[in-house]
Amino acid sequence: MDAYVKQNINNNIATIEFFHPEQNSLPSDVLKKLAKTITELGNNNEVKVIILKSGGDRTFCAGASFKELIAINDAETGKIFFSGFANVINAMRKCPKFIIGRIQGKTVGGGVGIASATDYCMATKFASIKLSELNVGIGPFVVSPAIERKMGVSAMSQIAIDANTFYDANWAREKGLYASVFETIEELDEAVQKFAEHLCTYNPEAMLEMKKIFWRGTDDWDNQLAERAAISGRLVLSDFTKETLKKFK
Questions:
Q1: What is the dihedral sign for C-alpha 52, 57, 63, 66?
Q2: Which of 97, 137, 114, 109 is nearest to 34 (CA)?
Q3: CA 146, CA 112: separation in Å to the nearest integer?
Q4: Contact 233, 71 (CB under 8 A)
Q5: Which PANTHER family match (predicted)?
Q6: Per-residue pLDDT tens for 76-118?
């Protein structure tokens, strides 16, 4: 199957689904479309709640596209590349509707950032998380503000430093990333749908004002995440990172 970002609106619930055949890793074009879709649905008066999910049943998101990462050969290209996840997170932050995350499987790097930027996140027991960026000589600079906001500095720094380890879904729930963890995808989907339907019975104006409060103090993220993207774009050109990336070719 080819990569895609698709949307569906049913009974005031918008569902956004992204997919990439390489374990739902996200290249620049998919990230750009994902950010655009979130913004458009957030401004759609028919939509009261958004569900964000990925295709397939094993991996929610494997992070950034490794092929694009390896191909970076100048700092500006690097900044643009890492700005992809920044733009998605900022679109989620600015979206006036609650976004429910549906995390069916493992999520790595930028995928952890996307999960953290949802307003309410539900997962299966298979949805372990890992920040692997330090392994290749960079760091989770762009996504760490969203992860820190959701899970706290201690949990974020733990998984950022321990870049080889997957932390299981129950650990992520205890740290605040997931609200609930389910045994199966079927149970997860049922719970997500029921929860979204229930949110649609609430006052949209009240939910909008609550979202503003939840994200208070993040007005500088447009600039902050762009600066973080530039750091990653510079580090990916370092001799250490270039030598490390050669091992993955």
A1: negative
A2: 114
A3: 9
A4: no
A5: ENOYL-COA HYDRATASE, POLYKETIDE BIOSYNTHESIS ENOYL-COA HYDRATASE PKSH-RELATED
A6: 999 999 999 999 999 999 999 999 999 999 999 999 999 999 9
Domains in the chain: ranges and CATH: 4-184 (3.90.226.10)
- Report how far residue 49's alpha carbon sits from residue 164's, in angstroms, rounded to the nearest whole number: 35
A 10 A CB-CB count for 24 gives 25
Rounded Cα–Cα distance for residues 127 and 60 (Å): 8
- Calculate the CA 223 to chain-centre distance: 19
Other Cβ atoms within 10 Å of 125 Cβ, number:
15
Show Cβ contacts of residue 133 under 8 Å, excluding neighbours closer than 6 positions: 109, 139, 140, 160, 163, 232
The span from the first CA to the last CA of the chain, in angstroms, equals 23
Distance CA 113, CA 189 (A): 21
pTM attached to this predicted model: 0.96
Lookup: tokens for 240: 């250490």
What distance in Å separates the CA atoms of residue 199 and residue 166, rounded to the nearest whole number? Answer: 32
CA distance 89 to 145: 10
For residue 101, the surrounding DSSP H or E stretch is: strand 98-103
Q: What is the pLDDT of residues 5-40, one digit of tens each?
A: 999 999 999 999 999 999 999 999 999 999 999 999
* Nearest-angstrom CA–CA distance, 92 and 73: 29
Give the phi and the psi of residue 219 in degrees, each rounded to 5.
Answer: -60, -20
Cα 217 off chain centre by:
20
Backbone angles phi, psi at 3, to 5 degrees: -65, 150
